[in-house]
Amino acid sequence: MTTKSMISRRTAIATLGAVAAFGSGTVLAQGTATRPVTVRLGYQKSSTLIAVLKVQGTLEKQLAPLNATLSWHEFTSGLPLLEALNLDNLDISADVADTVPVFAQAAGADLTFLAQEAPSPAAQAIVVREDSPIRTVADLKGKKIGFAKAAGVHYLLIAALDKAGLSFKDIEPAYLTPADGRAAFEKGAIDAWVVWDPFLSAAQRQSKVRVLADGAGIASYQRYYLARSKFAKARPDVLHVVYAELEKTGKWVKQNSKEAAALLSPVWGLDAATLEQANSRRSYAVRPVVAEGLAEQQRIADAFFSEKLLPKKINALDVALFKPGA
Fold first, then answer.
1. How far apart are CA 232 and CA 32, in angstroms?
2. What is the pLDDT of residues 133-148, one digit of tens each?
């Protein structure tokens, strides 16, 4: 065999290998195909798609050919999750509300936006007890309101107050995790509670509550999946697999709502009917993050800065964007 034909044969084999990798939804970074890695993945109770993948063991199976294993880390809400990502204690973050990356950017985090879930405005709301004298958002002036700091509900509250002619300074904030918020709400320690699904659905089905406002026309509530930029550059093959499985799982959950609710019920400790209601209000439509789609991120950042809740003004476009299929 001639040297020329040997080179051609090697080139053909390499090309076939690259095509096979791309066809499986995985694009391998140079020199990383066989390097073992433990992918540290953070999530929270509202991380539905990641929870489904965790229960089914799907990601472990899909990542095994890349010599990648998973370690799972649960958080109470989005802010501590992204803080862990910023401190290099995680590699990938499951979905967090649109507000959370804004705070992470202000803290100097070097993040890559992996994916976005299309808007789900009804999946978060401001609620009061059914017998509360509070009838409108304007009635919240001077009231104590519980919510998780930097969560999507934080922006929902700011936007709703602004629409009612009030500012954040007109209320008394109580920064509470969802579990603590529920307890405080039921004891009457706070006048109103701003919360997201599945906690919102649980409160609606298990307690006597009244919705003052949800995100419709105020806050679209898009959720983002992120990765440390250093990890994204080193292992894009892993991100391609995660993206593909999220997209596939989002479609499955919407098409099989009862089955998905039954799957997650014992994991989350919530009845299937509550989870089915919560899932009906989430889009679960996973899509790439594009610069044009970050306009609301800038509005969120500007609103928080205006209320002096961010230490500095940020540019929402000053982030890295992962391109699936690239």
1. 12
2. 999 999 999 999 999 9
Give the C-alpha separation, 104 to 110, whole Å.
8
Q: Give the pLDDT of residue 29.
A: 42
pLDDT digits (tens, 9 = 90+) for 68-117: 999 999 999 899 999 999 999 999 999 999 999 999 999 999 999 999 99
How many CB atoms lie under 10 A from the CB of residue 106?
18
Kindly report, residue by residue over 12-21, the tens digit of the pLDDT: 333 333 333 3
pTM of the entire predicted model: 0.85
* Nearest residue to 230 (alpha-carbon basis) of 87, 107, 110: 110
| 3-state secondary structure string across 131-180 | CCCCCCHHHHCCCEEEECCCCHHHHHHHHHHHHCCCCHHHCEEEECCHHH
CA distance 266 to 261: 9
Beta-carbon contacts of 137 under 8 Å, excluding residues fewer than 6 positions away, are 126, 160, 161, 163, 164, 166, 212, 213
Who's near 51: CB < 8 A, 6+ residues apart?
Answer: 43, 45, 264, 267, 268
How much is the pLDDT for 1?
A: 43
Query: For residues 251 and 117, is the Cβ–Cβ distance under 8 A?
Result: no
| Helix H or strand E encompassing 224 | strand 223-228
CA atoms of 214 and 122, how far apart (whole Å): 6
Give which of 68, 79, 123, 140 is closest to 104, Cα–Cα.
Answer: 79
The tokens describing 83, both together, are: 């803080």
pLDDT tens for 116-175 read 999 999 999 999 999 999 999 999 999 999 999 988 999 999 999 999 999 999 999 999
The amino acid at 140:
L
SS3 label, residue 226: strand
Please count the residues of the chain: 326
User: The dihedral of CA 115, 118, 122, 126: what is its sign?
Assistant: positive
- Output Rg (C-alpha) for the chain, integer angstroms: 22
